[in-house]
């Protein structure tokens, strides 16, 4: 009887205790099924609730509790936990399932980080066939911006890297995460917070920028000093954006059927010569008539449409082309065609600059049983006859602090391993201020996260644009130099990709090497491995008569050339202090040294390597990592 009474008292106490943790709580969007939390770091769990009510958090055997503050917020911390899962995270009566503990990285930057695996990335099909990895999860922070600091992201969900979701992941981040999981044998979470075409100041606190000197200063002051007017302006712009997106999301089915049918009278439409002219705007409709002698084995080749397009044949939808993806060759079902006159109609939209484009010279045709039927030339088009013009939507994401407020601030309480970053193209024209700007952003983020100098790994700009033998005033070369100088910050690493870019495309499709070169940096910077992670780096130089010797570090087993039969090191230019730059002959003289033959009469001046938008280079170390660009004085 005595033991029974004690048990009864314990049950009452337990019941009273448990009832203290039944109040409703609101969690940030990052806390959802499928999430990955950072191992070996204290885990913050935060949210909102009823002031004065109690909150209890439990995960993997760890428990903590606290009280909701007067402002309705609460923030609790679980102790460091080892990698593992799946677990259930319980917050009062809320349960979050399929939770893993591993390594979490933020993938930031502009379009080359945002670039999706499905967007013609080299090797993507192999990744799709492999089916992904259930212990790798991505959270895509939606593109958003704000004039004030937000306490949560506007949307997003954790997605498992399976055959369905994989195609929409950042390609660079995927290849990085894949190596992280394979080599460290831990779950991996990627928080994608990136946006194409954006400058570094948009990702930095405007209050900090308002105290600095630079081209961004007036805008930073405007954003911080006139916050209320900016909030009103952005709200109005958001209403327009939502209306625009609802208009472009899908065509009116009746209007589309009429405008794309073979019997539609487009005589009132204007004429355009594609692909040369570009008067297209808003939701542009363009029609082209063509003749066929057969309806079998007809293939449409129209890969270049910018950005999105609905493609119709004789009134029926043939294909939807999303942004960032080239349209594949399409085998047209024979029942969509007729012998004689057919009509191809394209509904094209470009929400980036409101100027859709259709086609590229030599890339607009049909294959009819092996015979080419050109689609170039005169088309009928209209920018407003079928659907209304789009409301004006301005872009303010590039303004100082705007993306930082909406896409970075809300996630800074979430423990991470570090950041991978790919950006710089949008700042190349202002390269002189990039080192300070970029360094400020990194320091800003580290202070916000409060995790110390966490690893910050970034990609140097790839080679791009027309190749010029001598280009000493290259903006891209100066920007690369600013990126290199940013390595002065502790726990930073740079992946050099100056040998895998594409002259005609700012988005090189080789993302695998980018991700894996970032991973090399992670092994060295984040995990403390004593490995070779960079290509050859400038160390020192000296001259002897008419010869200049440049010594490199990070050479591994020794300097090499990528040319199978080559002997000359490409990419060096020199100039006297008052003279013009010119190419010079250079060869590898020993394991870590390149010997340059100076032009006659040149005794003091400057040497530069890989100093151009798109330099021709061939110097690597034994890992095949390219030598980094540099410039140095000699005498």
UniProtKB/TrEMBL annotation:
UniProt keyword terms in alphabetical order: Hydrolase
Name this polypeptide is given: Sialate O-acetylesterase
Sialate O-acetylesterase domain segment(s): 398-507
Keyword ATP-binding assigned: no
Keyword Hydrolase: yes
Source organism (scientific name): Algoriphagus locisalis
Signal peptide: none
Record GO biological process: carbohydrate metabolic process
A GO molecular-function annotation: sialate O-acetylesterase activity
PANTHER family: SIALATE O-ACETYLESTERASE (PTHR22901)
Domain of life: Bacteria
Pfam families to which the protein is assigned, alphabetical: SASA
């Amino acid at each position: 009887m005595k033991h029974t009474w004690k048990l009864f008292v314990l049950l009452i106490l337990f019941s009273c205790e448990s009832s203290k943790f039944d109040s409703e709580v609101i969690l940030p969007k990052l806390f959802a099924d499928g999430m990955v939390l950072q191992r070996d770091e204290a885990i913050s769990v935060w949210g909102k609730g009823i002031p004065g009510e109690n909150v209890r958090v439990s995960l993997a055997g760890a428990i903590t509790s606290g009280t909701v503050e007067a402002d309705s917020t609460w923030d609790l911390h679980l102790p460091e936990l080892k990698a593992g899962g799946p677990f259930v995270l319980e917050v009062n009566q809320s349960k979050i399932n399929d939770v893993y503990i591993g390594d979490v990285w933020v993938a930031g930057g502009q379009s080359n980080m945002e670039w999706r695996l499905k967007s013609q990335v080299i090797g993507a099909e192999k990744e799709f066939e492999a089916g992904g990895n259930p212990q790798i999860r991505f959270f895509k922070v939606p593109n958003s911006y704000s004039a004030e600091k937000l306490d949560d992201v506007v949307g997003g969900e954790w997605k498992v890297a399976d055959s369905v979701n994989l195609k929409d992941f950042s390609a660079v981040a995927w290849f990085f995460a894949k190596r992280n999981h394979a080599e460290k044998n831990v779950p991996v979470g990627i928080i994608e917070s990136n946006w194409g075409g954006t400058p570094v100041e948009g990702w930095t606190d405007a209050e900090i920028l308002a105290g600095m000197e630079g081209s961004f200063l007036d805008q930073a002051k405007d954003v911080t000093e006139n916050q209320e007017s900016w909030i009103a302006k952005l709200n109005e712009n958001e209403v327009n954006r939502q209306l625009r997106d609802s208009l472009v999301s899908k065509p009116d089915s009746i209007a589309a059927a009429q405008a794309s049918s073979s019997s539609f009278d487009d005589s009132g439409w204007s004429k355009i010569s594609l692909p040369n002219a570009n008067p297209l705007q808003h939701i542009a409709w363009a029609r082209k008539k063509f003749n066929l002698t057969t309806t079998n084995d007809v293939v449409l080749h129209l890969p270049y449409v910018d950005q999105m397009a609905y493609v119709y044949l004789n009134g029926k939808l043939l294909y939807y082309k999303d942004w960032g993806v080239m349209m594949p060759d399409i085998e047209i079902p024979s029942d969509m065609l007729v012998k004689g006159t057919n009509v191809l109609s394209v509904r094209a939209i470009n929400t980036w600059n409101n100027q859709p484009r259709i086609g590229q010279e030599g890339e607009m045709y049909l294959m009819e049983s092996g015979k080419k039927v050109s689609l170039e030339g005169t088309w009928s088009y209209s920018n407003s006859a079928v659907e209304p013009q789009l409301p004006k939507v301005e872009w303010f994401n590039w303004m100082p602090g705007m993306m930082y407020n909406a896409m970075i601030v809300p996630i800074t309480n979430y423990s991470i391993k570090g950041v991978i970053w790919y950006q710089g193209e949008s700042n190349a024209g202002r390269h002189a201020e990039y080192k300070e700007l970029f360094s400020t952003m990194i320091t800003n983020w580290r202070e916000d996260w409060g995790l110390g100098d966490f690893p910050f790994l970034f990609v140097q700009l790839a080679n791009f644009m027309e190749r010029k033998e001598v280009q000493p005033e290259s903006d891209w070369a100066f920007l690369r130099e600013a990126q290199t100088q940013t390595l002065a910050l502790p726990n930073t690493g740079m992946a050099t990709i100056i040998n895998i870019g594409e002259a005609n495309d700012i988005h090189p499709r080789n993302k695998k090497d980018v991700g894996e070169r970032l991973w090399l940096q992670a092994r060295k910077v984040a995990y403390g491995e004593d490995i070779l992670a960079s290509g050859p780096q400038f160390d020192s130089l000296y001259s002897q008569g008419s010869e200049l010797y440049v010594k490199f570090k990070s050479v591994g087993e020794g300097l090499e050339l990528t040319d199978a039969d080559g002997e000359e090191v490409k990419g060096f230019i020199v100039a006297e202090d008052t003279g013009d730059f010119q190419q010079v002959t250079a060869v590898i003289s020993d394991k870590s040294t390149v010997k340059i033959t100076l032009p006659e009469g040149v005794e003091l001046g400057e040497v530069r390597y890989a100093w151009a938008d798109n330099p021709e280079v061939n110097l690597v170390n034994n890992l095949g990592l390219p030598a980094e660009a540099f410039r140095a004085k000699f005498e």
